[in-house]
Amino acid sequence: MATQDISSLGDIKLLVNTFYAKVQEDDLIGPIFNERMLGRWPEHLEKMYRFWQTILLEEHTYSGSPFPPHKQLPVNQTHFDRWMEIFTATVDFLFVGKLADEAKVRAANMAYMFNYKIEYFRNAENI
């Protein structure tokens, strides 16, 4: 059972590594990630460390726009629901506290926004 909050880059790395290890093995979203990340997992994980470090620890190490690389993914609400299920379970298993809760809120907001934008662009292209 988790007893501490997210408080360091080491905690961020533990969260990101544990989460993406589960993602890679997942029957629904694993194939999508593994196909896109082929040979680029270390680079992606480094980017995710910086992203979450910036959001949760307010140490500004990430710059960029997270949405464009995801725009053309073959995903829908079911995929985002599974992503959130894995993310939430990972956070809850590893951590407890204010930043752990913030991570789950931020992830849910991103999942909602990404799904909304992907659907928007997909529908706009079909007009």
From TrEMBL:
Pfam families: Bac_globin
GO MF annotation list: heme binding; metal ion binding; oxygen binding
Gene3D superfamilies membership: Globins
Presence of keyword Transport: yes
Keyword terms of this UniProt record: Heme, Iron, Metal-binding, Transport
Protein's name according to its UniProt entry: Group III truncated hemoglobin
Originating organism: Flavobacterium cupreum
